[in-house]
Amino acid sequence: MTPTNRALNHLTREQIYDFEVSFDFIDAGGVVYHPRYYILLERARYHFCQSLGLNLVEHFNNGFVFVIAELQGRYRLPLRVADPFGIFCKVDKVTSRSMKMRQYIVARDKIEEALLIQDDEVKLAKISHFSGQLHLVHVNMKQMQASPIPQRFVEALK
């Protein structure tokens, strides 16, 4: 599943990535296997950071990562093979060592609606197949502890 970035120019911290469900993501019942939703969110976060000019591979090679400290997921509607969908990513808060964000998996035909209601968490959740709220902590891998987020990351994410 390779995403297509449909980020709109007027959006800064909100991005949507297009995907389509492939066979390797479904279970015997023909729907996306529940742990795969978290993989999809991870892929969208990676591409989201890239779209902001943040090179996570280079950052990793320099010994730093963003680790999920807290994750709350909510499953609402199944996705089936070949279903087109988008993942909406939005940063809610950035601190010196962490960030909080929300991600919503929505049917492709609901993407424009998602953009219109992006500030209404209740409405956005209602049209989502799956949603996740995440608290990510910036970690120095050598020291295995939280470390300050580089200023260029903070500026891009705010």
In a few lines, what is going on in this structure?
The protein is of the alpha+beta class. Helix content is 27%, strand content 36%.
Distance between the termini: 28 Å
Give the number of helices.
Answer: 5
| Helix and strand run | EEHHEEEHHEEH
Please report the total strand number as a whole number: 7
Mean of residue pLDDT? 87
Number of domains: 1
- Within CATH, the superfamily carries the name Hotdog Thioesterase
Strand count, sense and barrel status of the largest sheet are: 7 strands, antiparallel
Helix content: 25-40%
Identify the CATH class.
Answer: Alpha Beta
Structural classification: alpha+beta
Approximate strand percentage: 35-45%
Q: So, CATH architecture?
A: Roll
Shape: globular
Radius of gyration: 16 Å
How would you summarize the topology of this molecule?
Layout: E1 4-5, E2 14-20, H1 34-51, H2 56-61, E3 64-75, E4 84-94, E5 98-107, H3 111-116, H4 121-126, E6 128-140, E7 145-146, H5 151-157
Antiparallel strand pairs: 1-2, 2-4, 3-6, 4-5, 5-6, 6-7
